[in-house]
Structure formats: structure tokens, C-alpha cells
Specification:
With 93 residues, this protein is mostly helical. 69% of the residues lie in helices and 0% in strands. The chain has one domain: Orthogonal Bundle (Arc Repressor Mutant, subunit A), CATH 1.10.10. The longest helix has 24 residues, at 17-40. The chain is elongated, with a radius of gyration of 20 Å. The protein starts with 16 loop residues before the first helix and ends with a helix.
Length: 93
């Protein structure tokens, strides 16, 4: 059996269930804030498209009606916006 010093153990080991739940909630909230910030930095209409499609769960058809963009244009812009968003999040995280 190997011994593990207190310095090598995770801080989470010493937390009770409620404290771990609170820590997990804070981590999720922080991640959501990073994502929202990265979306707000997307150029042009890209942030709106990402928000409508992923956060508001609008269909491509609904986004067409809201923005006046064609289906193919929305799909292309979403694809490109996801790539930019991924790069931004990799940099932040």
C-alpha cells in the first residue's frame, strides 16, 4: 500500500457532499460564463446564430424567419462560428 501525503490529495477529498456540490455548481457557472463571454466576442451575426441555435434551441427554419438568412447560409455561418468559438474556448480554458 502506498502512502499519499496530504499535499498530493485533491482539496475535494476533504469536502463534504454539500461543499462538493457547491464547488461543482461554481465550476459549472464559471464555465457557462466563459462560454457566454466567448459567444459575445464572435464577429457579426455569428453570436446571435449560436445563441439562437444552441441556447434558445431554435430550428434552422425558425432562425431563417428571424434573421432572413437562407438555410445554407445559416449552416455555413454556424459551422464557422463553432470553429471560432472552439478556438476562443481553448485559449480561455
Amino acid at each position: 500500500m502506498t502512502t499519499v501525503s496530504i499535499h498530493e490529495e485533491s482539496a475535494e477529498t476533504f469536502l463534504d457532499h454539500d461543499q462538493r456540490s457547491q464547488l461543482e455548481h461554481l465550476q459549472i457557472t464559471e464555465q457557462q460564463n466563459y462560454i457566454k463571454d466567448a459567444i459575445s466576442r464572435l464577429p457579426g451575426i455569428d453570436g446571435l446564430l449560436i445563441t439562437l441555435y444552441y441556447l434558445d434551441e431554435k430550428s434552422i427554419r425558425e432562425i431563417e424567419e428571424i434573421t432572413g438568412l437562407s438555410e445554407s447560409n445559416i449552416k455555413v455561418k454556424l459551422f464557422r462560428a463553432r470553429k471560432v468559438l472552439e478556438a476562443q474556448l481553448r485559449f480561455l480554458l
